Amino acid sequence: MKNINFNIKRIGLTAVISAFMLTGCSDYLDQEPQDSVTEAVYFKTPEQFEAAANFFYRATFGYVAGSDGGDESSDLSGNITEQPTYVSGNKPVPTSDGIWSSNYNQLREANQLIEKAAEYEGDQSDIETFVATAHFFRAWNHYKLLLRFGGVPIVTRSLDVSSEELYGPRNSRYEVIYQILSDLDVAIDGLPSENSIGDTEKGKLSSEAAKSLKARISLYAATYEKYVGTATDGDGTTVGAGSAKPADYPSVQELFEDAKQNASEVMNSGAYELWDHRAELGDRNLYYLFTLEDGSNPAGLTKADNREFIIYTVYDYTLRQIRQNISHSKPYTPSRKLMDMYLCEDGLPVQYSSVFEGYDKMNSEFQNRDNRLTSFVYEPIVQYWGHGANVDGGGAQYGVDFEDAGTGFDYRYVPQLLNPSGGRGVGYQGVKFVTEHKLRETREESFNFPYLRYAEVLLTYAEATVELGGGAISDADLDISINKIRERSNVAPLTNALISPYSDLTMLGEIRRERAIELFGESQRFDDLKRWGIAEGELNHDLTLNYVDGTEFETALNPKNPTDLIYNPSGFSYGTTSSEKSISTYSGIANVKPGALIFDIKGNRNFSIKNYVDPIPSDQIRLNPELLQNPLW
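The structure corresponding to this sequence follows.
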């Protein structure tokens, strides 16, 4: 029998011990399968508990972060390849759902280890780390289900076909959050400090990693309750999961305090630091953080130099390549809105900065800007390496001039402004997570992928602080959080004095701006907009790209084919903007002016409160009618 979309007979201990986990240690990579081992003879030694715990990493972090779209079709993204787009609001109710099935499958494995630990006859301290690891992953899987569906059935034991959880109702989102935070407390107490984890085991979880995740989830829970409330819960009787709260569920204030406290403890631990190699890598410093491998950058930095990633998937060229189409597809392309959200070097947005050079020339808007722009977005007619043997001329030959590469290729980047074909890489070209490695073909990339990194901890601290302050935050708190991120981006610090002359700039708005810029492409934008209760106001506008009317783009010739213009207005059926329009609920975001290329019209973008939670798959409701569908689905 199937339910909660997993096959109980199929998902068992054999899967745990026959799979392997990837960390920095080759011993784990080279584990031999033990297909003959069964539950009856397993979980007898600490080594067996460790092998079972190691499986969770590969099972749960077995896909590339961002491979679920990297914020595609959001207000910040110039990509609209998926049809229907998520932002269209007309996603049909699916019969099945991969998030539902995979996370419930993985919950069984975590629960099994926790149960077997209670029966273990040896010294409990010998398996404490592995039990804490299981609690972390139980929290993680419930968290992924919460983000997708709101309240879901909580599963804290391994089930069989007669288990009542298979046929019971959903728990509320508040009950799920309470369970997640409780599991993370166990993980925090039982996991080792990051400072005690040796180089050969980097990638394994630490107590600071669990605190970082708890800070994220506490912030999520607090803001969702503050700004959305019970609007997506349903009554729990005829529709939805309801709004029941455990007796000692924390208040919004307490959740904000918990987020700030956990973030602060991670910040004070000394376990992590921001990647900052501007001296060696220049204004593309951040690009190399997300493509870091041996031989992947001109300074010869390696993964050992990265102390920013906290929770991440570890890949290896020999033992575990990414095997997904990342570099070739180049999915992380910015929209006009994101391009204008990037700050100028003086710390001000484009509409107020005295050093912003406008849009008249193809390169104007790239001057005096945030290094996150220059790291992740190609500047027109500037030379960039391709990757592998011959993609876009082939990968980087550091220390060699482009003209001396021996390929005969013209490495200058020319914007694609001829037509919207493919729905990706039009207008601007984003290259976050796109390698320039000479020896990496598409699908062979092997850089690590982050699920949570230290920059986010700093952002969480700042956001929780400004929420607790009723919109106010001190310069001192900004300096230990947001301004560390701005400094490594070559942006002047955010201060109360900096924004005070501008009535439409607020501290909460600027901190949210920083989060949008810093985490773009890391699949958090939709969840952020929903927890802030502003998704409809941010998403349902024309999606625009480059300013073309009245700019150099109108008449510029393609330097690689001088008989052709770079821009073909007849290729874009939606034309360009004809008037200035606000595109954000936050008035501090620059308006879109006339002359911007329209890539998708607001008529195609109909996100609503209904879309704050996805529908329960119809197969699950058929198997268990107690699973009430979410409101409006």
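The longest strand covers residues 309-313.
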